């Protein structure tokens, strides 16, 4: 391992880097270019690595991008609750028996969360009516 690798610290998994960059983009006032992301990370990650990660995240539909000069500027497609909801939908869509998955999910909810879900689904779903 060379001195440069030691100065940068331990290598992180791609998922950790994506989460770090996603958090940075969510906190930003607007879309950021790869150069701006690299600068704000400030941990020795190369510009080309940032471009690669941003491109992968765009391909996964986590980020939108718009041309800015000779580069693209990237922004999250949704906020943190939106990403959590997407993950939940993905899990549900991967299972063959949606009804069973939803039933198990609903059975595991606390009374407070079950009441909140009823409210979100609308007044017609309230069993007390």
UniProtKB/TrEMBL annotation:
Any matching Pfam family: Penicillinase_R
InterPro entries cross-referenced by the UniProt entry: BlaI_family, WH-like_DNA-bd_sf, WH_DNA-bd_sf
Keywords associated with the record: DNA-binding, Transcription, Transcription regulation
Family (UniProt): Belongs to the BlaI transcriptional regulatory family.
Protein name in the entry: BlaI/MecI/CopY family transcriptional regulator
Organism of this sequence: Streptomyces sannanensis
